[in-house]
Amino acid sequence: MCTHPLGNPCLLGVQYAAFMTTQSFLNQPQIDAVEHLGSPLLVLAGAGSGKTRVITFKIAHLIREGGIAPRNIAAVTFTNKAAREMKERLAGLLEGKTTHGLMVCTFHSLGLTMIRAEHRHLGYRRGFSILDPQDSETVLRELTQKESSDYDVPALQWRISTWKNNIISPQQAQTQVEDDTSFNQAKLYARYQRQLLAYNALDFDDLIMQPVHLLSQYADIRQRWQHSIRHLLIDEYQDTNVGQYLLMKLLMDKRDGLTVVGDDDQSIYAWRGARPENISLLGRDFPNLKIIKLEQNYRSNDRILKTANRLIANNPHLFEKQLWSDQGLGDFPRIIPCKSPQQEAQHIVGDILRLRFKRRDNFSDYAILYRSNHLAKPLEQALREHHIPYKLSGGMSFFERAEIKDLIAYLRLLVNPEDDPAFLRIVNTPRREIGPATLEKLGIYATQRNKSLFMASQELGFTQQLPTHARLRLEQFSSWLQAMKNRTANENPANLTRRVIDDIAYADWLRNTSKNQKTAQKRLENVQELLDWMARLTAEKNASAGLSDIVGHMALLDIIDRHQDERTIDAVNLMTLHAAKGLEFSCVWIAGLEEELLPHHSSLDGAQLEEERRLFYVGITRAKEHLTMSFAASRTRYGEQLACRPSRFLDELPQEHIVWADEVTRTNSTKTRETGKAHLANLKAILDH
DNA sequence: ACGCCACCTATTTTT
DNA sequence: TAGGTGGCGT
Description:
Elements: H1 17-22, H2 28-35, E1 41-45, H3 51-64, E2 73-77, H4 80-93, E3 103-106, H5 107-118, E4 129-131, H6 133-145, H7 153-165, H8 170-176, H9 180-198, E5 201-203, H10 206-217, H11 219-228, E6 231-234, H12 242-252, E7 258-262, H13 278-285, E8 290-294, H14 302-312, E9 334-338, H15 341-359, E10 366-370, H16 376-385, E11 390-392, H17 402-415, H18 420-426, H19 436-449, H20 453-457, H21 460-463, H22 468-487, H23 493-503, H24 506-513, H25 517-540, H26 547-555, H27 563-568, E12 572-576, H28 577-580, E13 585-590, H29 606-620, E14 623-632, E15 634-637, E16 640-643, H30 648-651, E17 659-661, E18 670-671, H31 676-688
Parallel strand pairs: 1-7, 1-8, 2-3, 2-6, 4-5, 6-7, 9-14, 9-17, 10-12, 10-13, 11-12, 13-14
Antiparallel strand pairs: 15-16, 17-18
The chain binds a DNA duplex (15 and 10 nucleotides) through helix 5 and helix 28.
């Protein structure tokens, strides 16, 4: 074993010494994983065991030692943030070495790249658009309005997404349905797909599904991509869904260059299609699969790990894992019973102030986690009272903001004249007094002739049907668009965008439509930020990036670095347990540990209960040094004051390693060694009376 | 285009 | 209970 760096025979060779000293060293299983070649590899990496380090070092190893060209390596993550961080770490490792052609991106971005190259086989034309879920909802609304006005569009959207995630075609869907409702949904699915093709547009799910079709239907395409991607590395493998699994399988085809890293105990996204069982499928589909476990945790102290281990031992496991740490036992994780959410919040805030005074660290080292968003409210209130800065995760992302979506819609339309959803979004933004009557006529004309709205709006055959004033306005808009479009080939994307903004007097429009000055200001800043990004991006890519490249990736948000404001603000982190995955904090509070909240009342049995347990597990393993868990004895829910029971998961913790604080009885003492079970019984008695 | 009222619902959310 | 939404009236 070589956990110690000095005089160590099992480092990755002297060549690595140079950058190993600036990075951290690897332990033996990590080295095994990095150096393993010759068969597909599954790395079962516990929380905090350095899985990303394994992937980045392995990529570096492949390039430096294996003589593999970067363009033959692809590393796939689930979030843009993870991809960005991986790129940064790689840049550190491979200083000087060229990484040209190396792909470090999300599954969706990989899919987009493939579709870009092969779109003709799918019947798409270049410049196709990516619709976000809001756009596709609008398309579905339009499609269903003709049937009935009160159609359950979200249910349909969810259904279609599930089909696509499972790589089920509209035709297959129609043969598989059980009842009238779903038969109807399957028919609408088919119409939706036709509609997208007509718009020359794809939705997010298509970015996985279409590449799977391409690879499974065309042997030559499959061979080309298999030749191109010789090494595929996948992070957070437990989160792959059916489509992503198939994509991986088609790309690798039993070859040796596959490395997947995952943790079945951190699978918390089954509810949206993730298949943690893909971990066991791997052994079936890749018979010579090598498995390496990473069990040393570099994040937390041992009491926190013992707490996590004991909890998760209540779940069935295919591969047993025991996290351990050499960082000492550390403090006792604490459980704080509280009377109310308000008292709970007060307690946490008091804790934070006390700890920060004692530790002299940053607010950003602290996180408060909870199962669902509404639990943040009392916490926010208490933090505000005490003037503690906090950062709330969730909320509207940059690209969901109306002003950003407007501008992207303009760009989308310039790249793809068939993009009717984009046309409809901007035709009256800002106001051009092109009303519903005109648009309806335009729509009918376009549909009859199988043309896009933009194209139809330029045709004399159509505009001559309109009353003079409407005709003039539409002609003006349409010819302006055409003029802009003619510039797309030569002008750089950032300048073109600026020109659009100026021409449409977008700043004025934002000022006029915003509720107050402050929001107007904020929106203008967002627009400026978008412009800056585009300018930077164009500069970086040596102007080789066409507008269509940029616009395509904008929909995926993956070219944007948004960490600048996050790193400067020192604030306590408030987030859901889901949002906390992959992060770590010195001190963590988990609030609202009550039955019906965690486990959530809709997930009280079977596989769902196990996922709730994993969610708690993820929360616990975020903490490096301090862990505090709390619950309230009563809580207002749906307008009613309800008594709450502590979460069953608290009973599953190793009581010898945790401390229950006595808040309910209002004594401030803590009982260190009393067994929690007895304590819980006490508490229940108190709560009953 | 906007504002008001009545009604409905209430888990997690990336791309 | 509260916040978001859809319909309606101005």
